[in-house]
């Protein structure tokens, strides 16, 4: 697998790169498209940004929407999922005493986002503890729904969690929350290109996802999805040419002919849009390389490696296989200084992989993408055995 596909990527050959989940890695053909767009912009910036940009920005939405299970009118291109979720969080009209219900597995930047919003509005954050190991949809959903009170205004969940690499079965929780008039806000940073996504069927009010992770687009390309009946709630963080004074009026058009939701968020001053415009190229690359099969091979290798490490440590996994992210696994190791383990892996073994403490666990979070190989997994396990005092016996 890797000997064929690694040639498509620009990663350094002297580094065992096992951290696709943080910032992704862009294939060479997609990166070349990205650079060609940047060059075209620089050769005639006024034509590109002043006369053509509005039409150009439609192409990624049209290409991406079917892949996400929605229409192009419901998504808008942004820089990253955190930006999209900030737009939502700061658009909602929360009052003192309102509750934002979430879990103890959320991404730290978004924990800070909601803390900021709570401080500004007087709302409060209610955090439920998801039972581990996660082995059933009912255990997750019942725990989340038990946290709902008459004051709950927002349900904020990750689809795939960052620290624990779990796929949360969010469908029933989303449906129940919406039935109770609660805003549903989903952090899908790790989802596009990683697991199938049908946004309209899911029914969440707001969903933000990164394209530069598992979809393998250039850095700085993401989307925000908003259900049509919720788009009027959204306010831009940057007021620029896309904003109009009457954008909240019934039937209002955006400044450039699209909806206010799209124009206000897409047209926000001078920026380099090349990463977003390269999204169709990434979709084409996946199709040309038969990426569904590549992803299945990566899933098998990731889960096999986690099982091998589990046999070495004797520590239980955070979930049964059905609730683990296919290509990204949070693997517990014996308690240790995570920075020391991380630095030793990088400096002594040239392995790039995140190591961190989460709650009372030390975690090595493995990502497996099409450029990785089983020999690289052997290198990782051998290094962890040495650093953590483990035996490799019986793991081959």
Task: Give a structural overview.
With 396 residues, the chain is of the alpha/beta class. The protein has 2 domains: 2-27 and 290-388, Aspartate Aminotransferase, domain 1 (Alpha-Beta Complex), CATH 3.90.1150.10; 29-284, Aspartate Aminotransferase, domain 2. It has 15 helices and 12 strands. A 7-stranded mixed beta sheet has the order 2-8-7-6-5-3-4. Strands 9-12-11 form a 3-stranded antiparallel beta sheet. Strands 1-10 form a two-stranded parallel ribbon. A hairpin with a 2-residue loop joins strand 11 (355-358) and strand 12. Helix 5 packs parallel to helix 6, helix 13 (291-313) packs parallel to helix 15 (374-388) and helix 14 (338-349) crosses helix 15. The model has no long low-confidence stretch (mean pLDDT 95).
Task: Please render the helix and strand layout as text.
Layout: H1 2-5, E1 16-17, H2 20-23, H3 28-43, H4 45-68, E2 75-78, H5 81-91, E3 99-103, H6 108-121, E4 124-128, H7 137-146, E5 152-158, H8 171-179, E6 183-188, H9 199-202, E7 206-210, E8 222-226, H10 260-266, H11 274-277, H12 279-288, H13 291-313, E9 328-333, H14 338-349, E10 351-352, E11 355-358, E12 361-367, H15 374-388
Parallel strand pairs: 1-10, 3-4, 3-5, 5-6, 6-7
Antiparallel strand pairs: 2-8, 7-8, 9-12, 11-12
Helix pairs in contact: 3-4, 5-6, 7-8, 13-15, 14-15
Which features characterize this protein?
globular; single chain; Aspartate Aminotransferase, domain 1; seven-stranded mixed sheet; 2 domains; three-stranded antiparallel sheet; 396 residues; alpha/beta; Aspartate Aminotransferase, domain 2
